[in-house]
UniProtKB/TrEMBL annotation:
This is Carbohydrate kinase. Residues 4-205 form the Carbohydrate kinase FGGY N-terminal domain. InterPro entries: ATPase_NBD, Carb_kinase_FGGY, FGGY_C, FGGY_Carb_Kinase, FGGY_N. Belongs to the FGGY kinase family. GO terms for molecular function: kinase activity. Residues 245-421 form the Carbohydrate kinase FGGY C-terminal domain. Pfam families: FGGY_C (PF02782), FGGY_N (PF00370). Keywords: Carbohydrate metabolism, Kinase, Transferase, Xylose metabolism. The keyword Heme does not apply.
Amino acid sequence: MVAFIGIDAGTSMVKAVAFDQSGQPLHTECRPVRLDIQDGRVEQDMDEVYGGVQDVVSALTQRVGRPALVGLTGQGDGVWLVDESGRAVRPAISWMDGRAHALVEEWSAAGVITSVFRRTGSAMFPGCPGPVLAWLDRHEPASLDAAASAVACKDMVFQRLTGVRATDVSDASMPFLDPRTRRYCDEVVAALGLTHRRGLLPTVSDPIAVGELASGAPIASGPYDLAACALGAGVTAPGDGLLIVGTCLAALVVTRELDLDGDPAGLHISTDRPGQWLRAMPAMVGTAALDWMLGIAGVSHTEVDALLEATPPGAHGVRVLPYFAPSGERAPFVEPRLRAEFTGVSLESSRGDLVRAVCEGIGFAARHCLQAAGLTGSLALCGGGTRSSAWAQLFADVLARPVRIAEGEVGARGAVLAAAARSGTELDAGVWTAPVEVVEPDPARAAFYAKAYEEHLDRLAVARALARAN
C-alpha cells in the first residue's frame, strides 16, 4: 500500500493522517496536548508535544507500513527555546500567551509596531516571537543564554526527528522576515532590541527543509498550519480566501500585492511561491470560545446543532464580543487589553441564546477579518467548527456568501502536498482539495446579519476605547 502521512502538531491536539494516492484518508490518529494557562501566561510541555507526534506516527506506520512521504506542519508563533539537540530549555511559550502585552503597548506608543509593519507586513501581538523574546531578554535572560535556537513548534519536532535545525519562510514571516527578500530583516531585529540575540533565529530554509525519519521515510517540514491549511483547502488563486474555524479563527486571502502602507494589522505570510503571499488575519479565539461557553453552560458538542436550530438569529437580543483570549486581540487589530463582553442577557435567556450569541459573535469577527484581508474571490471553510452543519450555515449567512466546506484535516493534507511539491512527487492537488459541499446563504438571514454586523462594529469601537482607557 502506498501511503502519505501528514502530521499537524496543533495547539490542543497532535494529529497524523495517512492518505492514499488520491488524497482519501485511510487512518487518523490524534493525541491531546495540554495548555498550562495561568495569570495570562500560556505554556506547553515540548516533550509532551513531541511524544504525541511520535505516538501518532508510530500508530499509523503500524497500520500502513513505511510511508512514501511525510509532511509536517504545526501551530505557529510563540517561542520554543531549544538546545543544540532540539530539546527544551524551558516550557514553550504559546502564541496565546499574554505576558508581553505591556511591551507591545510600549512599542505601539513609540511607533515601533508601525515601523516593523512597514518593513515586514506583520503587526506584532503579545504572543508572537518578537515581543516574547524581548520579554525573556528583560525578565528571564538565563533561558535565552542557555538556548541554541528560538523556533516554532514544527521546527522543534523536525529537529528532534531528523537532526536538522531550520525554519521556513512561513514561520519566519512573524515578525523578522522581509517578505521581499525572504530573509531576516536585521533592522527589525535591532528595532526590537534583539541584535545580541540574533544567533537564536534558526536558518530559513527556502524551499522547505527535508530529512529522514528513523525508518528511512522522507519528511519535509512546513509550511506552518495556516499556510498548510490554505494548500490543503486548494486556496492558491489570488483573491480566494480561507476561513479556519479552529482554536484560532484565521482568515487568509491569497495576494500578489504587499500592502505595507495600510493600518498595521495581521500579517503577510510568505509562501512557497515567491511573489505570492497569504494576507492573514488570525484572530485569537475561534472554537476555544465556543468550548468555553459549552463548558460553562454544561452542554456537549453534540447538542450545538440542535441549540442553533432552536434559537432564532439574534439570540433573543443576547450579543457577544468574542474576545476571550487572555492576551486580547491581534487581528484585524491589535488590542492586548480587550476582553469578551456579553450584553442583552436576562433571566429569560436560555443556554441556546448564549451558545448562538457566541457563534454569531465569532461569525462577525470572521467577517471583520475577511474584509480586512481583502477577500474578492471564493471562500473555503475548514476546521473543527465545520463539524456543526448549523454553524457552517450561520457562517454562510453572516458572511452573505457561499462557503466551500473543505475535506477534513486540511493542515495534514496541505503538509503532504507541500512535501510532494518539494520532492517532485506527483499528486493531483485538484482531487486532493475538492470540497465536500458548498453551503449557500439564506437571503433573509443574510440581510438580518448585515445590520447586526454594523451594530457589532459599533459595540466593538466602544469596547476598544474602554480597553485602552483601563
